[in-house]
Amino acid sequence: MKFHHKINLHTHCTFCDGKDTAEDMVKSAIKKGFTVLGFSSHSIHPLNPEFYIQPDDDWHIHNENLVSYTDEINRLKVKYAGQIDIFTGFEADYFESPEIGSSIPDFSKYKKFKPDYLIGSVHFVNTPNGFYTVDNVTESVQEGLKRLYGIIPGVSDAKEAVCDYFEAQRNMLKKGDFNILGHADLIRKRNGVLKFFSEDESWYKEQINLTVKAIKKSGVSVEINTGAIARGIMDDVYPASYMMEKLYENGIPVCVNSDSHNIDSLDTGFEKAYSVARKAGYKELVYPLKTKTFIIDL
């Protein structure tokens, strides 16, 4: 289905760590000219997010609220029909721990909630000594790298930590069943400040190449995520240019998502993301849902 308007499938609201209600996000999307809006609240189902307490927030939907979330999005689908197409999704986290359990983005695990799509994302990296969140506040990432890897950012080589991140992503791609890969190189988020690795290193590019091969095999679409721009963390999208080039060379479809957490950032950085896609060679964006696929010409 060819489209010529704005679409965003990576949207957070107050059911997780978003700042505005789902209905307020819908109203903002309509004002901004969106034709399609998908909600993707953070979920680590079937694990209960109470097992971890983040220094900056507890940001996943708790299990007891999953039905309330899907019921609300379904209510909005009906209420705003004719003004905007609304879809129900989850940003499903990949997490595997012998002690805590597993959460793998997979439609079979979310079956009772009837999602239209799943975004598979890696935020956590597990090690034999515990786990940390790669995109947490700078101080937390710094502490995690030191505690789990003995890394002093800016001084020590963080190759092992970065490789563990991409290995987790490849495991998710191999084991999961989802539509869209979320912020594929999220490990970059705090690197601008902490400077714990260089994207120019040959080993880093090899990790990108291995991950692109896994993406190709999985058949998912990759989002060009503008979330770091909205937060003022980077003036760049995920993924970076080298990975974008490799995605295009391998014929892997991409879409643009804002990873918005408030009504003001629903389309932040979209023009830049479109430009990044064109520069890599793309002529269209592909938004895959379980029952249909939207395509936007660039």
Describe this structure in a few short sentences.
By secondary structure, the protein is α/β, with parallel strands linked by helices. It has helices spanning 22-31, 66-79, 138-149, 159-175, 191-194, 202-218, 227-230, 241-249, 270-280, and strands spanning 2-3, 6-8, 34-43, 85-93, 95-97, 101-103, 117-121, 124-127, 130-133, 180-181, 221-225, 254-257, 284-288, 293-297.
- pLDDT < 50 stretches: none
How would you describe the shape?
globular
SS-based structural class? alpha/beta
Total helices: the number is 9
Q: What order do the strands of the largest sheet run in, or round the barrel if closed?
A: 2-3-4-7-10-11-12
Order of helices and strands: EEHEHEEEEEEHHEHHEHHEHEE
